[in-house]
Design goal:
The protein has 96 residues and is an alpha+beta fold. It has helices at residues 17-32, 61-68, 71-79; strands spanning 4-12, 37-44, 51-58, 84-92.
Length: 96
């Protein structure tokens, strides 16, 4: 079973930056408690505050998929509906 790195980029509407940030921050504690979560770090762009990036490491893709179906993620989706302009997710593997 190989580890999985996730890079998730969330772009908030300018007027919704604080809402999206608050909701993203709520995800950190429960996610770090989840089975298979090795690292779950949230970043905010220094020059473009609308841009957030989660850098995540998971023990397996299966455990990450279980995370994607959790209630706290559903609550986030509902709370930020209409507040996010763009969401990009990359599933990655360490190559060096």
């Amino acid at each position: 079973m190989s580890k999985l790195t996730i890079v998730a980029k969330i772009e908030a509407k300018p007027e919704s930056v604080e809402l999206v940030k608050a909701e993203l921050l709520k995800l950190i504690e429960p996610t770090r408690q989840e089975a298979g979560c090795i690292q779950y770090d949230l970043h905010q762009d220094n020059t473009n505050p609308e841009v957030f990036v989660f850098y995540e490491n998971w023990e397996s893709r299966e455990l990450w998929q279980a995370h994607m179906n959790n209630d706290h993620l559903k609550a986030y989706m509902k709370a930020t509906e209409g507040a996010v302009v763009n969401f990009t997710l990359n599933e990655m593997a360490v190559i060096g």
